[in-house]
Amino acid sequence: MEIKFCVKAGKSAVETIELINKAYGGAAMSRAIVYRWYPRFQDGREDVKDDARSGRLSSARTDENVESVRRLLTEDHCTTLQMIADRLNIGKETVRRIVTEDLRKNKDLREICSSRLDRRAETRTRCLLPGSSFNGTR
After folding, report:
1. pLDDT digits (tens, 9 = 90+) for 86-99
2. Per-residue pLDDT tens for 31-90?
3. Cα–Cα 20 to 30 A to 47, which of 55, 84, 96, 133?
4. 23, 1 in Cβ contact below 8 A?
């Protein structure tokens, strides 16, 4: 708020830094922070709250995504974490956490993901869930 006050009082960025250093000494904010915020307040900004950001949500582990992952695993037992992540437009690590932390709680999911013979590749596939009865060996 000191920066905002200095801007409204007509002080320059250099003067603002000097005043803040004089008032707070070693506990003063850095020059870089003053230079970052000074033009924002000059442009009319009134608060220091973060701006809204576009892009992925900070947490994609929503009930809707958990259900979507469950549905995709039910439809195709051979799907990979990356395939699910690409299809739902969420991170692979988020999918892994949904599978291992959210869906693993439901014992019936182990039946969905039990070992079986993949007819296309004629190899056994391994369940995505840790602790499944199939260990991935031939």
Report:
1. 999 898 888 888 88
2. 998 998 899 889 988 887 766 666 555 577 888 988 998 888 888 877 888 899 899 989
3. 55
4. no
Q: How much is the pTM?
A: 0.41
DSSP 94-122: HHHHIIIIIITT-THHHHHT--EEETTTT
- Among 19-28, 40-49, 65-74, 109-118, the range scoring the smallest mean pLDDT is 109-118
Query: What's the DSSP call for residue 90?
Result: S
Cβ–Cβ under 8 Å, residues 117 and 107: no
**Residues 6+ away with beta carbon under 8 Å from 85:** 91, 92, 94, 95
Structure tokens at 46: 């009134």
- Enumerate the β-bridge partners of residue 125: 116
- Bridge-partner residues for 117, per DSSP? 124
Separation CA 132–CA 115 (nearest Å): 8
Q: What is the sign, positive or negative, of the torsion defined by CA atoms of 109, 110, 113, 116?
A: negative
Instruction: Please name the residue ranges forming H helices in the chain.
Output: 2-8, 13-24, 31-42, 63-75, 81-88, 92-97, 108-112
